């Protein structure tokens, strides 16, 4: 049973740990914000996810959970619990399913602790949500909405949402201009990486082919995105394009990446965090899916086309392919170009 909403002054939300998943939780955050308009909402998140929400319209404060530093190990968790206890939270909503994510709020003595009853953590929660109460084959956005609605947190359904500041938007324009892309130019974003594992990654030569063809069709400038660990993939594409692109892989913060994606006119991407960022900013996109289940993690927007092949072993949800990667090799550059042009209602060129 929830306390009276007018008595809830401070709410902690334990964020999920991946950027793409975090974007998919934002509609649930919107429900919490609407239901508790006067409460101070604090998000507890790892450093990359914390950056996504710094700032965000539905979050008042962000606390960083640094599992590799100050909050590492048992001593670090006790330190984090002590930090939370000092904030005097009335309630915590725990979005991840791990035991650890429920243990720390319990150690902090937060009186109302709401989350999914999984991973042996039911005794740590005062309010429990069962997976059985969610229909199968639901999207992750709906799962998180259902979780918070189960606890009587109601409001109007909203789409995933991210926020940038005017200063960040201006800085993104400056970065593009420094790379030779003038204000007002059509920007084609290419995101060839995927942090979860190599099985989710389509091929650099095919990304380059698609980028070259679409850029010619739309008189667009190509910008390649990626993490520092994906710089090699981006460099391969850059080489295949003869340098006719702006390679930003490994050169941006999370906030800079968000603002640059927001500025883009179209994205071609694997199933990844940047894919969800683009969807949240209403950027049209084509997403290539192979080993992951598009029914649960597709970009939550009408401005997206999914390209995938119905091979027998997909979705396997494995990080690395144990066979011949047929779910990705079957997807051709022609498939992706056709999907992009259909989404923008342009006929493919022969």
Automatic annotation (TrEMBL):
Q: Which GO terms describe its biological process?
A: lipopolysaccharide core region biosynthetic process
The chemistry this enzyme catalyses reads: an L-alpha-D-Hep-(1->5)-[alpha-Kdo-(2->4)]-alpha-Kdo-(2->6)-lipid A + ADP-L-glycero-beta-D-manno-heptose = an L-alpha-D-Hep-(1->3)-L-alpha-D-Hep-(1->5)-[alpha-Kdo-(2->4)]-alpha-Kdo-(2->6)-lipid A + ADP + H(+)
Task: Say if the entry is tagged with keyword Transferase.
Answer: yes
Enzyme class, one word?
A: transferase
Q: Which GO terms describe its molecular function?
A: ADP-heptose-lipopolysaccharide heptosyltransferase activity
Q: Which UniProt keywords apply?
A: Glycosyltransferase, Transferase
**EC code:** 2.4.99.24
The cross-references to NCBIfam families, in alphabetical order and at most eight, read: heptsyl_trn_II
Name it: lipopolysaccharide heptosyltransferase II
> Which organism is the protein's source?
Oryzomonas rubra
């Amino acid at each position: 049973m929830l306390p009276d909403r007018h008595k809830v002054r401070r709410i902690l939300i334990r964020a999920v740990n991946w950027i793409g998943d975090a974007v998919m939780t934002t509609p649930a955050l919107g429900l919490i914000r609407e239901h508790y308009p006067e409460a101070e909402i604090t998000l507890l998140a790892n450093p990359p996810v914390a950056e996504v929400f710094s700032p965000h319209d539905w979050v008042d404060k962000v606390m960083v959970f640094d599992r590799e530093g100050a909050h590492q190990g048992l001593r670090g968790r006790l330190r984090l619990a002590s930090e939370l206890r000092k904030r005097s939270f009335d309630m915590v909503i725990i979005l991840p399913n791990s035991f650890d994510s429920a243990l720390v709020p319990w150690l902090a003595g937060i009186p109302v602790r709401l989350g999914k009853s999984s991973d042996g953590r039911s005794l740590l929660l005062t309010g429990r949500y069962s997976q059985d109460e969610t229909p199968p084959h639901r999207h992750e956005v709906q799962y998180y909405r259902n979780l918070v609605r189960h606890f009587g947190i109601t409001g109007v359904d909203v789409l995933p949402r991210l926020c940038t500041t005017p200063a960040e938007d201006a800085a993104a324009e400056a970065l593009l201009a420094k790379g030779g892309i003038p204000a007002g130019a059509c920007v084609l974003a290419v995101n060839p990486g995927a942090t979860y594992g190599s099985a989710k990654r389509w091929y650099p030569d095919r990304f380059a082919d698609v980028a070259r063809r679409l850029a010619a069709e739309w008189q667009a400038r190509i910008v390649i995105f990626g993490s520092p660990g994906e710089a090699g993939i981006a460099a391969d594409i850059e080489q295949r394009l003869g340098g006719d692109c702006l390679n930003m892989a490994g050169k941006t913060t999370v906030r800079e990446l968000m603002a640059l994606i927001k500025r883009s006119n179209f994205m071609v991407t694997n199933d990844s965090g940047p894919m969800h960022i683009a969807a949240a900013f209403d950027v049209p996109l084509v997403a290539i899916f192979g080993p992951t289940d598009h029914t649960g993690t597709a970009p939550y927007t009408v401005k997206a086309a999914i390209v995938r092949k119905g091979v027998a072993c997909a979705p396997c949800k494995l990080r690395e392919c144990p066979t011949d990667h047929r779910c990705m090799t079957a997807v051709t550059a022609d498939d992706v170009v056709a999907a992009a042009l259909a989404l923008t209602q342009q006929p493919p060129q022969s």
